[in-house]
């Protein structure tokens, strides 16, 4: 897939070619950023420790007859017994709810990544270029039995949207913790944190199912390229003519006129793009007619896309997978065929 040319889109309009694999790396890179953010957030977690009712450790200082060193040791020991290396240096009655906001923020960002990828998959399913797994007895639509709706991707988008919305809740909770704390965070915190983790788990489980069974339809992709490539090849045709001694301005004007005529056939009459037929029928382009097949080879329009995929997998993805090698050994083998 890393070398399979496909039509690129900007503004959801046909653009320069890319490859199926290169497009997948755009999704995967977002997930790498999420993994890094999750790892950092986990490593940054500390324990509140023995800080007392308003964070001053006054009661512990009294307990140890004013010995502050013992209070500090107690704070550290309580954290160690709870599985933490460090405690937060200052707290009120609770650790700052900014910590909750950071955690939910990372998970919410993951939700945005999932939503972006699954939205793309839904668009590609509409174009019939890629489909998510579809079971033999699965019903795509209760009213229209021929349909193959991307229901898993839609489910991911639905849950991811809820996950993204939770960030606002966590931000509002942190912002109204008056002075040393108020209790209006408690019930909200229990909902927000648990729903954030459960939602993240849910979308990742569904997404795993999607990615393990994605189906690519090269012939559909090839046909779509064929509809647009004649227009995109205009500049290459001009350059080929110039190499054969043609005048660039004259060639540009001829291609412009022929492109407008072909465009009219497509837009006004619903016909196929016949630009190349018009080029072949114009004696002006006779010097390059033997080169047209090479000029129109889609693989010459994808730049370094395939190499970028290989470099990305080797330099960026593999090191991250190695971080989880012990976990992956006990699960399904991870293959990166993009």
UniProtKB/TrEMBL annotation:
GO molecular function: (S)-2-(5-amino-1-(5-phospho-D-ribosyl)imidazole-4-carboxamido) succinate lyase (fumarate-forming) activity; N6-(1,2-dicarboxyethyl)AMP AMP-lyase (fumarate-forming) activity
Domain of life, source organism: Eukaryota
Species this protein is from: Tenebrio molitor (Yellow mealworm beetle)
Pathway(s) of this molecule: Purine metabolism; IMP biosynthesis via de novo pathway; 5-amino-1-(5-phospho-D-ribosyl)imidazole-4-carboxamide from 5-amino-1-(5-phospho-D-ribosyl)imidazole-4-carboxylate: step 2/2; Purine metabolism; AMP biosynthesis via de novo pathway; AMP from IMP: step 2/2
Pfam families to which the protein is assigned, alphabetical: ADSL_C, Lyase_1
Assembly and binders: Homotetramer. Residues from neighboring subunits contribute catalytic and substrate-binding residues to each active site.
A Gene Ontology biological process term: 'de novo' AMP biosynthetic process
Catalytic activity: N(6)-(1,2-dicarboxyethyl)-AMP = fumarate + AMP; (2S)-2-[5-amino-1-(5-phospho-beta-D-ribosyl)imidazole-4-carboxamido]succinate = 5-amino-1-(5-phospho-beta-D-ribosyl)imidazole-4-carboxamide + fumarate
Adenylosuccinate lyase C-terminal domain sequence ranges: 229-313
Entry similarity comment: Belongs to the lyase 1 family. Adenylosuccinate lyase subfamily.
Protein name: Adenylosuccinate lyase
Primary enzyme class: lyase
Gene Ontology terms: cellular component: cytosol
PANTHER family noted in UniProt: ADENYLOSUCCINATE LYASE (PTHR43172)
Enzyme Commission code(s) on record: 4.3.2.2
Matches recorded under InterPro entries: AdenyloSucc_lyase_C, Fumarate_lyase_CS, Fumarate_lyase_fam, Fumarate_lyase_N, L-Aspartase-like
Keywords: Lyase, Purine biosynthesis
């Amino acid at each position: 897939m890393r070398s399979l040319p496909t039509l690129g889109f900007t503004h959801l309009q046909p653009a320069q070619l890319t490859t199926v694999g290169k497009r997948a790396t755009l999704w995967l890179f977002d997930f790498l950023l999420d993994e890094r953010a999750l790892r950092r957030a986990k490593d940054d977690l500390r324990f509140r420790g023995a800080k007392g009712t308003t964070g001053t450790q006054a009661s512990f200082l009294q307990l140890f007859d004013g010995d502050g060193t013992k209070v500090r040791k107690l704070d550290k020991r309580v954290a160690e017994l709870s599985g933490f290396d460090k405690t937060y240096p200052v707290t009120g009655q609770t650790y700052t709810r900014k910590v909750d906001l950071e955690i939910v923020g990372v998970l919410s960002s993951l939700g945005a990544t999932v939503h972006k990828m699954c939205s793309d998959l839904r668009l590609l399913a509409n174009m019939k270029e890629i489909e998510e797994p579809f079971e033999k007895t699965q019903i795509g639509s209760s009213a229209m039995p021929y349909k193959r709706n991307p229901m898993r991707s839609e489910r991911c988008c639905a849950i991811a949207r809820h996950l993204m919305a939770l960030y606002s809740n966590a931000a509002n909770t942190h912002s109204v913790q008056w002075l040393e704390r108020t209790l209006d965070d408690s019930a909200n915190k229990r909902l927000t944190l648990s729903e954030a983790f459960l939602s993240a788990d849910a979308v990742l489980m569904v997404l795993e199912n999607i990615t393990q069974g994605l189906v690519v339809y090269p012939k559909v992709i090839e046909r779509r390229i064929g509809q647009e490539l004649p227009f995109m090849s205009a500049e290459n045709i001009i350059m080929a003519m110039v190499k054969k001694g043609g005048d660039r301005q004259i060639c540009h004007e001829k291609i412009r006129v022929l492109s407008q005529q072909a465009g009219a056939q497509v837009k006004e009459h619903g016909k196929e793009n016949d630009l190349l037929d018009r080029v072949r029928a114009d004696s002006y382009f006779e010097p390059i007619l033997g080169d047209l097949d090479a000029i129109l080879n889609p693989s010459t329009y994808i730049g370094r896309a395939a190499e970028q995929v290989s470099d990305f997998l080797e330099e960026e993805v593999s090191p991250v997978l190695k971080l989880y090698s012990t976990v992956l050994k006990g699960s399904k083998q991870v293959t990166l065929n993009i």
